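Appendix B.2, paired examples.
Example (i):
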Amino acid sequence: MNVVRNLVQSLGIRNLRSATDLNRAGLIQNKDIDSINSIAQSLPISITPHLAELIEENTSSDPIARQFVPDLAEATISPEELQDPIGDNTHSPVPGVVHRYPDRVLLTPVKSCPVYCRYCFRRDVVGSGLLDQAALEAALDYIGKHREIWEVILSGGDPLILSTRRLANIIDTLDAMDHVEIIRLHTRVPVADPGRINQSLVNTLKRKTPIYVALHCNHARELSPKACTAIALLVDSGLPILSQTVLLKGVNDDPDTMADLMRALVRNRVKPYYLHHCDLARGTSHFRTAIATGQDIMRRLRGSLSGIAQPTYVIDIPGGFGKVPIGPNYIKSVDDNNNWTIKDWKGQCHQYPDVN
């Protein structure tokens, strides 16, 4: 939208950060400014100029706008929705660390993001701010003392908004721990603010310890030419990229849209990893589909997409019990002789004799 680009340039601002900004850009109506400002008290507004320019005129149905422009529906809190929907707090031994699984931890050195997804499951904790130096040192000390930790996942917030110096210091510390064999970075930066991906950042991410980048991307239109260039710089530098996608009503909840996204990711050398069922975060019921919808999409993708383009459909069990696959089941036992019935992607059933 040229109006958004002109607004950002004329005001000299980097991101759209208020209801007034959104209104002047034509993304919300004047009558909704006060309500949107109220909603922003629970989750800040931030839309990068790059993403804003991808929004088309019909914002009510635009898949980019739906993800990032606040909706009045966020004020509706359903009874089943939770302040901490995946149990981060239950599994946080020290500030900045979530240790839910035995061999890996989440390290959250920053709470800020370049853009705030309106379905965010950490909507009550993300915003401005870094983990202070003492807390960061304590978090890294915890990781260093727990030698069962094989993988460290940097998330937040978005770790790629950290300065190169600060990010390098964290990675240097993790790289020196011989029991940490994998580092993973979860980020939206390549699609939200691709100009931040440069050679200096790439050099920071090249270490003895393998670093994987997990790219959060929900719609093929997010993979703009600039985003694709940023992704190529990372991949060409030897950094493997996986993708994470959230199943969102009105954004990607049909087989064709999901297939377009998965093909676009693979075309850019990004391996689809997870398709997340939308978490029970407060004020997000307008984004959630039925689980059966996700299963049907996965069933259709199985017949129409290459195996390398298949994500695993998962749900994060509320309370901190972890992720489990919830995709369609293709097999069931039919008798006591280890015979099975297996359903193909077309829905036809076949008998399979197993070993007794």
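Example (ii):
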Amino acid sequence: MGFLSNAFRKVVFWNYPRTSWQWDVLCVLILVFIFLTPKSWFENNEFRRQRTVVISADVVGNEPDTALIERRARDAVGRPSGRVTDVRPRRDDSGRVIAYEVDIR
């Protein structure tokens, strides 16, 4: 048991001399990790999958029904199980709603 704990301690604290074979093995393991790790492990998929869709006010009619707007946005993205996080009206200069911006995850 003392041999394993001693070896583990040396690996964790990097206590091997620079010219030893253990040093070379640790360096190779680090390089293997750097070059063979998939990029997907380091990407934030939740943020990347969020989209903003603009739905025209003509499509949903004059009455702003949020359930209808959310359903149209899900259909436009092609994700029927998507979660709508925000619905913002887009207005023209006179203050009339011309479209809705919908954020979907």
